[in-house]
C-alpha cells in the first residue's frame, strides 16, 4: 500500500512565520480553555480573548468551533496516521490485512476514549463535518484498502463507513460514559463485527 494513496493530515503548504505564530497562539489559548474549563468553554470569542487577538483572525484560521477543536487533535492524529501507515505491525505494514484492521479499530477506540470530550464538542459544534475532514477521509481510505485485501467480494467503501460508524463521538460517549461499557467490551464488540458474515 502506497502512503501517497491516502490524504494524510498536515500536508498543507508551509505557513509564513507570523501566520504560524498566530495559529500556535490560538491553539495554545484553546488548549488552556479546554484544560481549565472543558471543551464546552471553547467559543471563537473566548479563544480570541485568551489569545489576545481579534475574533476575525480566529474565524479566518479555523472557520468555526468544530474546526478549532479538530485542529487541537491534529498532532495526535498525525502520530496515529504515522503509526498505521508506516509503524510496526500489526497496526502498521507487515501484518495480514485482517490483523491490521483489528489493530486499527482497537487503537481508534483507545484514541476516542482518551479524546472523547474534545471530539464530542467538535461533533456537537458542527454535526457531520467529520465526514469531510482529512482525518476521516484518511481513515476511511485506509480501512477500505484493508477490506479490499481481506475481503475482495465485499463492498469495501460502504463497509468501511459502517465499521467506522461506532466511532462517532456521541455514540462512543453514550456507550462508555452513560452505559459504562468498558474499553474491553468495545473491543470485543469490534471483533464480533469483524467476524460477522464470515462463513
Task: State the main characteristics.
HTH-type_TetR-like_transc_reg, DNA-binding, TetR/AcrR family transcriptional regulator, globular, HTH_TetR, 68% helix, Arc Repressor Mutant, subunit A, 10 helices, 199 residues, 2 domains, mainly alpha, Tet_transcr_reg_TetR-rel_C_sf
Shape: globular
Uncertain residue ranges: 1-5
- The number of domains is 2
Order of helices and strands: HHHHHHHHHH
| Structural class by secondary-structure content | mainly alpha
The largest β sheet comes out as:
none
* Average pLDDT over all residues: 87
Task: Output the radius of gyration.
Answer: 18 Å
Quick synopsis:
By secondary structure, this protein is an all-alpha fold. The protein has helices at residues 17-37, 44-51, 55-62, 65-72, 74-86, 97-125, 134-150, 156-164, 169-178, 183-195.
Structural write-up:
The chain has 199 residues and is mainly alpha-helical. It folds into two domains: 12-63, Orthogonal Bundle (Arc Repressor Mutant, subunit A); 74-199. Helix content is 68%, strand content 0%. The protein contains ten helices and no strands. The protein has helices at 17-37, 44-51, 55-62, 65-72, 74-86, 97-125, 134-150, 156-164, 169-178, 183-195. The two termini are 27 Å apart. This is TetR/AcrR family transcriptional regulator. Residues 43-62 bind DNA. Keywords: DNA-binding.
